[in-house]
Queue: 2 jobs
Job 1
Amino acid sequence: MTRKAHRYGMVIDVDRCIGCGACMVACAVENNVAPSPLIRRPGTNEPKTIMPVRVERVAAGDQARFLPVMCMQCEHETPCVSVCPQQAVEVDRESGIVFQMPQRCLGCRYCMTACPYHARYFNWGDPEWPAGMETTLNPSVAPRMRGVVEKCNFCHGRLQSAQDRAAASGKREIDAADYVPACVEACPTKAITFGDLADANGNVARASRDAHAFRLLEKLGTEPKVYYRSELEWVRDLMERGGAAQENVDRRQA
Amino acid sequence: MTRRELLTLGLGAAAAVPLTPVPWKLLDDSSKWTQNWNWIPRPPRGEPSVKYSSCTLCSAGCGIAARCVGTSVIGIAPVADHPVSKGVLCPLAFGAHQLPFHPARLTCPLRHGRPARIEEVTAEIAGRVKAGRFAIVDERPGRAVSEAYQRIAAANGGAYIAPVAGNGLPLEDVRTIVSLGAPVLESWGTPGRVLELWGSGRLAVVQVEESLSKTGALAAKSLIVRQGSGSKISELLAGRVGISAASEATGVAQEKLADVVQFVKERGAMISVAGEQPQIAILDGEIDTLLIDHGPLGGSLSRGALRRGGVIVSLSPYRAGVAAAADYAIPTPAFGEALEEAPTPWDAMSPSYALAPPLRGAPAGLTTPCDFIAKVTVSGETQESAIERRVERLHAAKRGVVFAFRDRTVKAMSEFKTAADLRKAFDAGACWTDREAKETPAEFRGARSGRKAIDVPLLAMLRGNENDS
Amino acid sequence: MRYRFCMFFALGFGAMLAAAWLGFPRTLYRTEPQPLDFNHRVHKEKASSKCADCHSLSDNGVFVGIPSISTCAGCHADAIGNTAKEKAFVTNFVKPGREIPWAAYGRQPMNVRFSHAVHLNLAKLSCEACHGPHGQSSSLAAYQEDRISGYSKLAMTMSDCEDCHRKRNVEAGCLGCHK
């Protein structure tokens, strides 16, 4: 009576990313993120806006490359899940998505400290919407109030719509073409490949086994389900060194 | 009853309280109450649907699929297999449905920056038009309404001014694009077309500029040259100057230049593009009234491009750019609120045309720029009649194919029995292309632009700076 | 002395119990009449309607809970009976195409996701399993709204969902029911 256990993941081709930010815009629209100026908290690199996916820039001399960074959907001892006092985040058995429920969160921000990828964002204030713009909100994603943490959920609203569509024709398993997260759909160079890593012969699983594929902060052992890929040695070297040295990773907004 | 007995009564009541639902229900309800403040916005409710249209934020006219709930638009997605946009959208399109609610939205006419009534300003402008010479500035040429503007200008002794039309760039026929400051990889041209060629490796970018841009950082070869010396690189690649002379002029090391020359030569055919701003020359002293149709984004004209030319009437959805400083600002429908057109993109080699049907209703009291200009010039033109004429001409020419967005099917023009059938297809979301055309007819050509013609006012709006030019 | 003490204690105890159990619901809930007194039984018997005729599931998996006026207009474009109530309904709502402002008993918080498609087609539940013999009712139940939380007294809560899932041993992680 239950669905197969999927492991949804991504492979992002860094050589194709042009740093345009279409993924960021589409993500904000899908997840009901209120428009706001890009402000960092004074003295930090921490953004005050919610950016479930953000584009990071890495550079070497005159060359730069861009990496969209979102929740890595860690599989092994998922850091945020293990620290949450409220069980406001859990690893969904059916999809492998690390699902954050802002409505359960009490705002302690322990998970933000635990996340090695800084992929979690805090709602410092109630979201402010210009008059009338609330009619553009997406009903598949619940609006949040202040004081809670949120992050990328791999567009769970789209997964749920795909499940409904499959159920309407009596099917328990979704049609893979129906579940496309906003960032994947938006990317103009198709740099992001999304799919089920549990399908060993699928696009994503095969791409993740590519010789040029790597993951961020691999040595921490969080087993992220988001892979990156680049044929440029300098990019892979930089990521392998873990990005530990701050000067190697330019965290300015692309 | 004694006081002790009264207290005992109270004690009994208090002891009973936990056995009643009151404290538990109140606790539960108050927690719900604290999570349902009335200032937390509620998403719209209604039946979900998808409406097809074209994006009109720049001259590329990419196909869009708008996800709707009831009458509200809640998201934008690209149209796969679109012959012009190739299933791609730039970042702006994804948030475009929120533009009508931008705080800088023009809600009523402004006269010298102060609110005025539409009947009054229409009468005043009509009076000026009748009394002197007018010019219509069309920031989005190539549309059917552009032809209407030309007719209006010709019939009334006025002038029609538009940016120079592009002739198209043969990007499919070259292997390298040498860009003199043009932001080739930053939503430039028709993004789907450019990025498909770049992503597949067919087109390499050599970026020549005075300071490093994002395109330069991504380019195969990047040359940072001294100010004003970019043309020397073109001359070098054309073989008209030697490496040492070029190095002298640009400040780039000779080895680097030699490497680039070799790179371009090995790849084969190249094309050179410059990153110029759209140029519009307004003649001083000859024009009494300037009627500017900025297009759905509120236009890219900078105030500096307009030298004093009489009274400026700016037709725009937003109080940004020229509209913020014009003598008259007339509000027009914003993105997705009224029927628009998507003519041939400036970089395309063959003609194309699509309508951009509205995604939702416009606020009451707004007229389209064409209808307003027709009213003040007292001409019989309307936007609808102009579009009808073009659809009829397209149908009568019997050329090309029509790609329908909803079911992604292609039909030859000859398969449409009447012009009304063609119009119905356009209204449901479709694009006509004529790949066999030897060249694009002049009236179909969109404005030539090195830069995407949307940078200035949109960026100003995003930063909340409405006074930026 | 002790007797009086016990008596007053019991009096207070009993009075509070009565007040809370009988009086509290009356004050907590605000009753609002529905705009129309819809008769399900008549539609079932006279028009042989089944649940799915008006409360339908689309191919996309979207469920229509409360039908729009266009569904009613499908049969009631003009009055088909001869009651004054129906005539008023046609005049006030059908002809001008005005949506009936029903008060929804089942309204859930914004973060709740309930999929009728999954429960109808995969769990193969009948409408009556959750909604009871609502289709046989001759009038609509009174809409009682909690003044503090704003939700209907009849709205299902998470414990109702959990009970059924536990009984049938069906797993649903947080992602299954929340948006």
Job 2
Amino acid sequence: MTKIFLKERKVSGDFMIASFLFEYPLSEKNDFIKPGEFLMIKNRTEPVLAKPFSILNINRKGFTMLIKIIGRFTNYLSHSIPGEPFFFRGPYGTAFEKKLDMSKTMITVGGGCGAAPILFFNNQYPDLIEKSIIGFKNEQIKGLIEINEAVYESESGMTVIDELDKYLSERNNSEYPNVLACGSFGMCQALHKHSTERKYQLFVSLDERMGCGMGMCKGCPIKTKSGIKMVCKDGPIFKSDDIIWEW
Amino acid sequence: MNLKKNLLSLKWDGLTIKNPIVIASGPAGNGEDLSQVIDLSKIGMFTSKTVTFRRTDGNPPPRIVDVYGGIINSIGLQNAGFKAFLKETIPFLEQLQVPVIVSIASNYAEEMEIMIKELDNKKIDFLEINFSCPNIDKGKEAIGTNPNKIYETVKTLRKLTKKTLLIKFAPTDTIMELVQASVSAGATGVVLSNCPKGMKIDINTMKPILKREFGGFAGPAIKPITLNQVYQVRKEFKDILIIGTGGVINHEDALEYLMAGANLVGIGFGVMIDPLIPMRIIKKMEEWLKYRNLNYSSIFCKAQRS
């Protein structure tokens, strides 16, 4: 595991932005981790499993993550003091670009902290983004980061799926839309249903409780038409048509 | 001469084992991914993930739930079945530069017999019979807790192979009877212990988080229990092979198991935390022994009072 140091963390409600510094800066910018890949991070002393995190952005000196405070580790992190060392290993997972048709433009959808890899992707491949919808249930995130594409259910009463549906209705493009989405399992499952109704090609980046994060322990399964796959290694990105959603 | 290497080495039935650290069955899969991260030839032994006769999809998610001191896991022996194991995994295991333990499980004696017969011809060193996976339905009251069934099954299997035969049990108050049944029937030794059963309830839904309600409790919290199993079994069975496993995450844990009487020490959960942990444990054990001018033999069983 490689050492990193907490540079800064800001908390707003259930959300947190945490920045880390590498112990040794990277040699080349943006070569280290690609959108879709993730890092396994843990605190220094506790004998607990490391947790998977997508990153929001990265430079030679460090990286930033958008995190929902949901369990013991994220709660611990939300109270940590800048300078505290943490450990990470990785990156793991399949980069979005390995499964997507990168010759086509796409609509990207992020829900909650699933926004992180989508914003990272948008930032890395701005020319490929036809439209991006980043949705949050409430406006807590506004205290942490400015997201131009953000929509808030508490404000508009519309979910990201409603927003996407509206966009597709108004869309003036005869080409079959491609959609990349990251969010809760429930959001991805609902989007899959929507994709079959509205006829678009959907790729989802899934979140699952992980063990090792690198495919060994079989702790993060997803049922697909070609058998049981591991979210950590075979994913987290999957073509939604390949997933058997009910298990 | 590399003194450091000799400090941890041991022999079992003519087999020289570099050090007592064993990758336990399960969390490291069949070693393909782990071998990308660590040099498996530096490990004492490697145990493959328990293989079943038929393909097993495993349990639906969630399969891992964090609890204090470890996790509750409900993997459910996901594997591609014995036929695929022979074709795809055995060639990989046979080329590893480390002694290999193949772990098998079945609720049917006939299936186990077929697997043992096939494995007897392969270039593997030990066989582990997993009588104790908490995460398969039919296993709940199967062979693994009944001394008579254990005796009959092991006796049959023993006739089919001369390889070192290990029986893996979960912690239980009746462990002496189970070990006695195994050893009387010809087992070489035991693996102590598999995960005890555990549960986590989601207070919002008021239901167990795992769909099968309970799972296997793994991690440092179980070490006092599994360490005691090793100690008590060693007290009664002086000459059998014991692999002590449960909650080993650092060299001190591993040393405790050796002192309690384990010949070898398995690491499972620790590999999930960080796949480099086994290497770190080996290095630290060497340092610990060297600093005190000790070696493997001089600490083995030393916690036993008699």
